[in-house]
Amino acid sequence: MGVSDKLPGKKKRGKYCAVCGRELLESETSPLFGIANMDFAQAAKRAMLWTQTPAYVCEKCGATVCNGCMPLTESPSHWKNFPQCPKCGSDMESL
Question: What are phi and psi of 35, to 5 degrees?
Fold first, then answer.
């Protein structure tokens, strides 16, 4: 990590969740793959990584929402217009 990475106002690279701001994992393989053969601590770490994988992407602006912020119901309180984009209001596409 260089000095320029710590400067205020410098944007980080990569994709981030439009709702919570966490960095999203860009992996072809699901973090839950092979979880049955792990001890509890390893399985818990892998399950937490699953929340950082993309779940929805906006068709218009490209904003991405992670599995951790994905609504469990049709009308959650933290995402009032589901499945519209939290940034621009367009339709979201499930991944």
Answer: -70, -25
Q: Distances in Å between the alpha carbon of 34 and those of 26, 38, 40, 52, 91?
A: 18, 7, 13, 18, 33
C-alpha distances (whole Å) from 87 to each of 3, 32, 50, 76 are: 31, 29, 23, 16
Range 69-89 average pLDDT? 71
Token couple for 90: 């367009």
Those residues whose C-beta lies under 8 Å from the C-beta of residue 73, and which sit 6 or more positions away, are none
d(CA 20, CA 64): 10
Indicate the pLDDT class of residue 37, thresholds 50, 70 and 90: confident
Please give the structure tokens belonging to residue 66: 């992670």
Round to whole Å and give the CA distance between 93 and 73. 16
Local structure of residue 3 (DSSP, 8 states): G
